[in-house]
Amino acid sequence: MFTKEQKRILFELARSSIIEYIENQRKFPVRISDPGLQEVCGAFVSIKKNSRLRGCIGRVITETALAQVVSEMAVEAAVNDPRFPPLSLRELRGVELEISVLSSPILVKDVQDIEVGRDGLIINKDSYSGLLLPQVATECGWGREEFLANTCLKAGLPPNAWDNEAAIYRFSAEVFRESEV
Length: 181
What we know:
The protein has about 180 residues and is α+β, with helices and mostly antiparallel strands. It folds into two domains: about 5-100, 2-Layer Sandwich (Glycoprotein, Type 4 Pilin), CATH 3.30.700.20; about 105-170, Hypothetical protein ph0010, domain 2 (Dna Ligase, domain 1, 2-Layer Sandwich). It is built from five helices and eight strands. It has helices spanning about 5-25, 65-80, 90, 135-140, 145-155, and strands at about 45-50, 50-60, 95-100, 105, 120-125, 130, 165-170, 175. A four-stranded antiparallel sheet has the order 2-1-3-8. β5 and β6 (about 130) form a beta hairpin.
């Protein structure tokens, strides 16, 4: 669990990183001494405009400190999410950031072990891979099978591929929104 101060630091870091990249095409220097923000773990940064997704990119497996991952993924979500045009500085003022700090993925042996609202999913089959964060299923009102099917679709697979020799992983995330800090 992150403190309110740690969350505030991460959001300031994310916004500063985006601004530095958009204005100067440079990485923002990450100088965070808080030991909790130096832990090595995956994270996603989501950008929402009027409660709608405007960008989301992250890293599941990493050897990088959380603060650095958040800095890099904030920039990636802002300017390199292929689903959206790059964010402008002007547009940045009107968006909300959301950070999801991930646990390590666990191989699912029985889909009944997947708990909607707690777990995010990764599905791998052949050269295809898809990931959905835990909050996606809740926000969309999906049950377990809909969540599995939509993770398959995200991977570019048929919706029932999860039931046909696909590797399924689950993970949890601590999710926090800028408006809550």
